[in-house]
Design a protein that fits this description.
Elements lengths: L3 E5 L5 H13 L3 E3 L13 E9 L2 E2 L2 H13 L3 E8 L5 H10 L7 E7 L1 E2 L6 H16 L5 H9 L4 E2 L7 H12 L1
Length: about 180
């Protein structure tokens, strides 16, 4: 019998919110990526892995790649989702997927709108955001996406939306029913 596995890495709560919404929809428990040392996956299982985006790459990308490959090699369907402050678009989805080393065609990839809460960041992350904002301000001919990033990193914002999980949940349910 196929089993769903929902594994997340969340730092400020936006990925966790999506994970909890998916858990409610699919009737599964959320597992923390840090506690997933060795999990047995079987043929027909569905493994959902979610993490936030840092600089156009998934946080914990190396660990996620290893886990996704292990699950796919065991015959499980793998679905990865990223949460970020840049607007979800084909370009951003492809960029994060590529930069995270998740080009494997056996897995599905979703980019979901997250948020920004500087109060939940570590001091190191706050410093990196400060430097990133300085670099963005200096770029000539800033494009619209850069302006959005500057705005969104200047204050607390939450773009997480439960309705965004719909296509992912449909794909998981379909894979489990197959």
């Amino acid at each position: 019998m196929a089993h769903p596995h929902l594994i997340i890495h969340s730092e400020t709560g936006f990925t966790r919110a999506y994970g909890q919404w998916m858990a409610e929809e699919l009737g599964v428990e959320v597992q923390e990526l840090s506690s997933c040392k060795s999990i047995s996956y079987g043929q027909g299982d569905v493994v959902i892995i979610g993490a936030p985006v840092h600089g156009s790459e998934l946080a914990e990308a190396k660990r996620i790649r290893r886990l996704a490959a292990q699950a796919a090699d065991a015959g499980a369907k793998v679905v990865v989702f990223a949460t970020g402050i840049t607007p979800p678009s084909e370009h951003n989805t492809a960029l994060v997927r590529s930069n995270s080393g998740l080009a494997d065609e056996r897995l599905s990839f979703y980019y979901l709108p997250g948020g920004f809460d500087p109060n939940r960041l570590t001091q190191v992350s706050k410093s990196l955001i400060f430097l990133y904002r300085m670099m963005m301000r200096r770029q000539r001919g800033r494009d619209e996406e850069l302006a959005v990033l500057l705005d969104r990193t200047s204050h607390t914002c939450d773009f997480a939306d439960r309705s965004c999980i719909g296509p992912l949940v449909i794909e998981v349910r379909s894979a489990l029913a197959a």
